[in-house]
Every structure is written in C-alpha cells, then in structure tokens.
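Work Package 3 (structural annotation) set out to generate three-dimensional models for the target panel prioritized at the project kickoff. During this period the team completed the workflow that converts sequence records into discrete structure tokens, so that structures can be stored uniformly alongside our sequence database. As a representative example, we reproduce one entry of 402 residues exactly as it appears in the project archive.
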Amino acid sequence: MDHGMTGAGGATAEFILSLNAGSSSLKFSLYEAGDEPREIAVGQVESLGPNARFKARIGLEQVEDDLGSANHHVALRAILEKCETVLQGRPPACIGHRIAHGGVDYEAPQLLTPEVMEKLALLEPLAPLHQPHNLAAVRASIEAFPDALQIGCFDTAFHRNHPWVNDTFGLPLKYYDRGVRRYGFHGLSYDYITGTLARIDPELASGRVVIAHLGNGASMCGVLNGRSIASTMGFSALDGLPMGTRCGQLDPGVVLYLMDQEGLSASELTKLLYNESGLKGLSGATNDMRALEASQQLEAEMAIEYYTFRARRELGALAASLHGIDGVVFCGGIGENSAAIRARICNGMDWMGITLDARANTDNEMSIGIGRTKVLVIPTDEERIIARAASRALNERAMAKD
C-alpha cells in the first residue's frame, strides 16, 4: 500500500489527529488535512487501566493489541506508534479535541491556550464524566506535541444561541447570570447531522427537525433551519432522556429526599445519578441496549419501555417547541443500529405524521418513513466535525504566515 501523501502542488500533506477522551477510553481518527479532511485511520484504546486494549483500522489494515496498563498518556503514545505506518515520522500538525463543556464563553472551536484550559477546568463539576478526561487528553497531547496546534471543539457550542426561554430555569435571575442555565450537549453530532441534511435534503434542512442522538449518552434536539431551538439536556449531561447509566429527567425533590431522608452525600448522589441509573439501574443488570433487547427478564423490558416512552414524550415536546415538525433523524449507536427501538419510539406517533416503513426500518435504510413527516437514519461523525475545525485552523495559520 502506498502511504506517501501529498497535498496541492505536490506539497507534503499535514496530518490532523482527532481525539475523543472518556474515563475508560480514548477514541481517535487520523486525517490528512484538506478542504474536506480524508480519514486514514480510526480506532480507540479501550478499557484504560490495567488491561487496556488497542483496536483500529489503519489504512486498509485492522490492528488489535493488548497494551497492558495504560492511562491517557500511554494510550496516546500507543496510537501514534501504531499509526507510524501512515505518519512516516511526521507528527500531527493539529490535534483536535472533543470537549464536553464550553460554558457561556465558547460557541466556536477554540485554540487551547493555558488561559482557556484554566477556564475549562472550572467547568469540570458540570460534566464530571467527561470534562476531566477531555482535558487530560489535551494535556497529554501538549506534552507529546508542544509545536502542534491544539483545538477544542465543544459539545455545548451548537446550542449557545437557542432562545432564552429554552436557556433558563425558573430560578432567580441572579443564578442565570452566574451560569446556571441550559447548555445542551451532543452539539458536535447535531452539527454533523444538520450539515449532512443541508447537503442531501436542503428543503428538510431549512425546516423543523428533531434529531435523536441515542447511545450510551442520549439526547434529542429540536432544530429550525439548522439552528438549535431546544434540547433535552440542560445544565448537565444528566437531564432529559434516560441513558445507559444516567437517570435523565428527575424531579429535584427526589435529590432533596435522597440527601435528607436517605443520607446520601454529594459524592454518593453523583455516583448514583451518573453511574448507577438509567438502563443499568432500571434493569438491574446492564446499560447495553443489545443485551437488554436479547434478554427475557421483565426488568429488561421495563427499562426499554421507559427509555422509549421518554423518547416519545420528548419528541412531542420538541415538536411543540418548533411549532410543528417536518422530519425526525435518528443517529448515535442505538439510533443508527436498533430498528426495534426506532419502531417503539415512533409507534403511535401517526398523529404527528410519523409512520415507519417496517421493511426499510428493519434493513436500516436511510429513509424509513412513509408519512408526511420524514424519518431518516443518518450515521453521525463527531470526529469529522473536529477534523474540519482543525483543518480550518491550519489554513488560518498558513495564511497568517504568508
């Protein structure tokens, strides 16, 4: 296989590394920079800790390896070592990072300077499952590649300009001014889906669309003409839909009760709401939707029924926020792959013009609706959104040098 890569005019291509860091994994995509970045490797280091494992497609080859003990620093080194067949001694010129929370300050990709990193670290309590690990990957990247551009892309940015009524809570306004507001998440996914819609169906893209990003983390977003109007997630990534291990919408009185009557501390509540609830808590077994669908246990069916009921409820609420609906798009691991979950969510929604073509849905086709409201399945690609931002940053740097 020819790994030599050249850009326009025969110039050597620059590489972009896109990183998506979680508590137990480091996902990556490696791109050749360009107007539309070209993916040349994709994979992850999973099970960070004593038994980490590397899995990736590099060029045309599938690569797997046991790494032993690994943290984010070790995982990043392993990614670069495994990708040397395509890098050929040339380090990435820009590393783009998915960062869960950008707060009120950041609504566009940002160069990750020390000052910006300090501000982002202050947001860790708002996204404790994601933000600390996102920033750990940034620090590892800066240490490994001090000369590379480090770009942060924020999951909250897509929602930064939604209407005030969908941005606030019914609390004294002084708390809103202090940053207690609805931020929304999964913005990189929504950015990709709205961009894809604009390309494949401009008429629908200019209309009223509900996008359902359904995975271990799950949310839905009402979009009007490509702009976020309302999101199921709010101040934190706990709100809205039940998720793999997160509770979703919860009466705040429940939290007060658990503190006052059950004696749970803040750390115990955090563990309960983030790690022990959702599908895992309801089923008493697992957060894996595939395992729940295959299970014969009553609790598994109860968990699925609650999950799909809440999605139907939010679908109706988002349509009301949009003053109607023209289309629904499913994405994310569950949304893209589970025909049964899509069918259960859409069941009984004919009054909204949502009717599925059972065969198209079962076959995972892109267009699965036969009613007046279009229903689509579009695989999302958050890493490509990051790569595009990184490529723009490289172009801006090149122009500044000219």
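The chain has 16 helices and 13 strands.
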